[in-house]
Design a protein that fits this description.
Structural class of chain A: mainly alpha
Distance between the termini of chain A: 29 Å
Distance between the termini of chain B: 32 Å
Low-confidence stretches of chain B: none
Helix content of chain A: over 70%
Strand order of the largest sheet of chain A: 1-4
Number of strands of chain A: 4
Low-confidence stretches of chain A: 309-332
Helix content of chain B: 25-40%
CATH class of the largest domain in chain B: Alpha Beta
Radius of gyration of chain B: 25 Å
Number of helices of chain B: 17
Largest sheet of chain A: 2 strands, antiparallel
Number of domains of chain B: 2
Oligomer: heterodimer
Mean pLDDT of chain B: 87
Largest interface: A-B, 33 and 48 residues
Mean pLDDT of chain A: 88
Radius of gyration of chain A: 21 Å
Number of helices of chain A: 14
CATH superfamily of the largest domain in chain B: P-loop containing nucleotide triphosphate hydrolases
Shape of chain A: globular
């Protein structure tokens, strides 16, 4: 039982331990202003990772989100200069959703593996952002759009509010709508889902569009924070998002995973960054440490799972592998 | 002739079911020994034990006078036992030569180009021997990648690989399933050449004429027991069929007679008979494994597209392009492989049952809270699905209970026609009885059932009408009340008994 608790709340425990250690090592870490700072830094990755979680639960992956962030920001600001901020932001989100639509269509109808599809669109979209801007940053220091990145509601910065809204929305989608159930079903067993009347193509397109649109939102927030859009921004963001999803216990094989876990995963990455900066650790060492933490977390998760499985082999309760259940005869 | 393999009292159980219930068998050196039996008689389990893929529960195996190590494919291969499976185990990108010597290249003397040359020469000679041709003249080119070879050529490469390791017993499971008559004749020549070299062959086939043609002796298995072993000179088709199906029917089939109402589904193939299923009846689809029964019903359900078939639903033409559309019409399918096709193992029993029903469980445009659970609870009770909680993941359920969950999906949907593909495969006697009871209830409710089963007595007893398929054609329609297993077998194999 305690093993199960450890598995379900292990990543949260990890977050708390890392937080406690950083609190001991730096007296600036556990201050309200620093924690709000951490949350604001986490917000962009968390918004992207929420979409990534949904994609990964279907058994897919989206490597194009970093480029989509850049495209959305650039498209939004270019249009905003001409037609105003509201139209600009709408176009930015639509462009990002369009990238998702392209990904989804290639995966669902073209049967191109998600890894390859989004590896290709990652490059294409980056190129599109560079073409659109001629490789130059687009600066826009005025306009209501800045609210997205720079305003606060009470003490809480808007990016944090957007992150909270996104996480709750994604959680609600997965747990309360029937498409959320279909997402788990497609990732858990695509053939069984199809034979239950679920449209595989529909679900796949839906999740990539959602993933793209959320990357677009992240792109707008980023642009608003920097008062400019850079065609070269967002490089490597897909890896941070995937790391958050994996740290949160979502299986890359699909079929399982939670937004809750991803939230914790994003915060683990966030406080590591923040803590290292507070302690003046060289960015070079930061990279090594971040990678080590990710591997360590997944390793511990695997060990716990292996432990649970062998518990059954020894005649333990409830959780039996499928083959074993198959062989067991039905009494009565 | 001395004997090479002695098997005594071999037992293998899966759950409560005996796949092998005490089998004795001897294979002599240089003998082609065929094993025949119905689907599920225990033939494949027997081969898997010999090849080390499966460990028996009890019994003694002696090979060339010494006890055979059990449950280890490596040990079996080291003893000289090699299985040639239906799915080939060759690596497509490597050449025939590379495949033949894969993993034991060091057994060829020399190094570098010299070794490669020696391997090529040996491979060419092995392949030529098998085909009875002079080395290098026609036959299989040892330098071609396996992916460019035809199915019979790949088979020759598999056999050559076995010979290169000095195998003394080759196991062949349905080796001619995908071969033409000519290719079959050539394979049989090869089998005879193996015998001439002193190699023994265990040959499993559904095609009884072939068996009599190529085997020295034939062992008949039925329900995991040996019926008899006869020299093929003394065996007749009639004797083999009677041995295979003539079981004392120990199982009880509580069949209630159906009353056929309006026609629900019609399947019209380009050639062969049409299949018709009416409300209130169970229609059986019998045939050997691989005769095309599953392909036919999957096409009707929209799971696969198959040219040359036309369908009608309630008298109107139907084009099954996707399961989604077909489900809306009122058809449900319990697929052949419930683990891989029927269930999402990590999701709860309630969610699995609700999966095809979520579009109906709405409050406004959102799913009703607790809808899946409310939908599943009465079904869990009625079908007596054993769960600790309705949201328990289905992967933790026994086979019989899992099968009931798959059925419950369609009962919840109130489907008017149920396609049941091997609904009792791998479930125990008690769960089978419940499945039969449910089939009775379905037709009492005026639903139609299309039943595929490889268990011949079962499909005859539980059906009202029966179609028999052979080689992707529906070849006979029988009244199930007075059909005999022998008669069905004659249609299924295409032989006169």
């Amino acid at each position: 039982m305690s093993r199960r608790l450890l598995r379900d709340y292990g990543s949260l425990l990890g977050l708390l331990i890392i937080g406690a250690v950083l609190g001991l090592l730096s007296d600036r870490f556990l201050t309200t202003s620093n924690l709000i700072n951490v949350a604001r830094q986490v917000s962009i990755n968390a918004i992207v990772a929420a979409g990534m979680t949904i994609v990964i639960i279907t058994g897919g992956i989206d490597l194009s989100v970093g480029s989509t962030i850049a495209l959305a920001g650039c498209a939004a600001l270019l249009v905003a200069r001409l037609l105003g901020d509201v139209v600009g932001m709408t176009v930015g989100i639509l462009a990002a959703a369009g990238v998702g639509l392209l990904n989804g269509a290639l995966v669902a109808w073209g049967r191109v593996p998600p890894f390859i599809t989004t590896l290709a669109t990652m490059t294409v979209v980056r190129g599109a952002a560079l073409v659109l801007t001629n490789g130059e940053p687009i600066v826009k220091t005025e306009g209501p759009y800045l609210w997205l990145g720079q305003a606060s509601v009470g003490p809480i910065p808007v990016p944090i509010l957007l992150m909270i809204a996104t996480l709750f929305g994604a959680h609600w989608f997965l747990s309360r709508t029937r498409w959320g159930t279909y997402v788990y079903a497609v990732g858990g067993n695509a053939e069984a889902a199809r034979l239950s009347g679920i449209s595989l193509a529909g679900i796949q397109i839906l999740v990539y569009v959602l993933g793209g649109a959320l990357a677009g939102l992240a792109g707008l927030v980023l642009a608003a924070r920097l008062s400019s859009a850079q065609p070269n921004t967002g490089v490597g963001f897909e890896l941070d998002a995937i790391a958050a999803v994996v740290l949160g216990g979502t299986s890359l094989m699909g079929g399982e995973g939670t937004i809750w876990g991803t939230t914790v995963g994003a915060f683990i990455i966030g406080i590591l960054n923040n803590g290292f900066n507070l302690m003046n650790v060289s960015p070079f060492y930061q990279l090594i440490a971040k990678g080590a933490v990710i591997v360590l977390a997944v390793l511990v998760d695997q060990l716990l799972k292996a432990g649970a499985a062998s518990g059954v082999a020894r005649g333990g309760p409830a959780v039996a592998p499928a083959e074993r259940a198959e062989e067991r005869s039905l009494p009565g | 002739m001395e004997s090479l393999l002695n098997v005594r009292d071999l037992v293998k159980r899966y759950g409560g079911v005996h796949a092998l219930a005490g089998v004795d068998l001897d294979v002599r050196s240089g003998e082609v020994h065929a094993i025949v039996g119905e689907n599920g008689a225990g033939k494949s389990t027997f081969l898997k034990i010999l090849s080390g893929a499966v460990r028996p529960d009890a019994g003694e195996l002696r090979f060339a006078g010494a006890p055979l190590p059990l449950g280890s494919p490596r040990a079996s291969e080291a003893c000289g036992i090699v299985a040639i499976y239906q799915e080939f185990t060759l690596i497509p990108a490597l050449t025939a030569t590379q495949n033949i010597f894969l993993g034991h290249e060091h057994s060829i003397p020399g190094r570098g180009a010299a070794r490669r040359g020696a391997m090529r020469t040996r491979a060419a000679r092995l392949l030529a021997d098998l085909l009875g041709t002079a080395a290098g003249s026609g036959g299989v080119d040892p330098e071609r990648p396996v992916r460019d070879l035809s199915v019979p050529e790949r088979q020759m490469v598999e056999i050559a690989r076995a010979l290169s390791r000095e195998s003394r017993l080759i196991l062949m499971d349905e080796p001619t399933a995908t071969l033409t008559a000519q290719e079959t004749a050539r394979l049989h020549d090869t089998v005879r050449r193996l015998r001439a070299r002193g190699v023994s062959v265990i040959y499993i086939s559904h095609r009884l004429e072939e068996v009599l043609n190529v085997a020295d002796r034939v062992t008949i298995l039925r329900d995991g027991r040996r019926v008899e072993t006869v020299a093929s000179g003394e065996a007749t088709l009639d004797r083999l069929i009677r041995g295979m199906v003539g079981r004392s029917i120990t199982e009880h089939y509580p069949k209630e007679a159906g009353r056929a109402g309006e026609t629900l589904l019609e399947i019209h193939p380009a050639d062969g008979l049409a299949v018709r299923v009416c409300a209130g009846e169970v229609v059986g689809l019998a045939g050997l494994v691989g005769s095309g029964r599953t392909e036919l019903v999957r096409a009707a359900f929209g799971a696969d597209r198959r040219p040359g078939l036309t369908f009608a639903w309630c008298g109107r033409p139907m084009r099954p392009v996707a399961p989604r559309e077909v489900i809306r019409l009122g058809i449900g399918m319990v697929p052949e492989d419930r683990q891989r096709q029927g269930l999402v193992p990590g999701l709860g029993v309630d969610v699995n049952i609700a999966l095809p029903n979520l579009d109906r469980l709405l409050a406004g445009w959102l799913p009703a809270r607790g809808g899946p659970r409310r939908l599943a609870e009465p079904l869990i009770r009625d079908l007596r699905i054993r769960v600790t909680d309705p949201s328990q993941p289905v992967r933790n359920l026994s086979g019989g209970n899992q099968q009931k969950v798959v059925l419950a999906k369609w009962l919840a949907r109130r489907s008017r026609l149920l396609i049941l593909d091997e609904p009792t495969r791998g479930i125990d006697v008690g769960a089978k009885q419940e499945m039969y009871r449910l089939m009775n209830e379905l037709i009492r409710d005026g639903k139609g059932v299309l039943l595929i089963s490889s268990d011949l007595p079962e499909v005859i007893a539980m059906s009202d009408r029966l179609y028999v398929m052979r080689r992707h054609r529906v070849v006979a329609e029988l009244d199930a009340r007075n059909a005999s297993p022998e008669a069905v077998m004659v249609h299924a194999t295409g032989l006169r008994g």
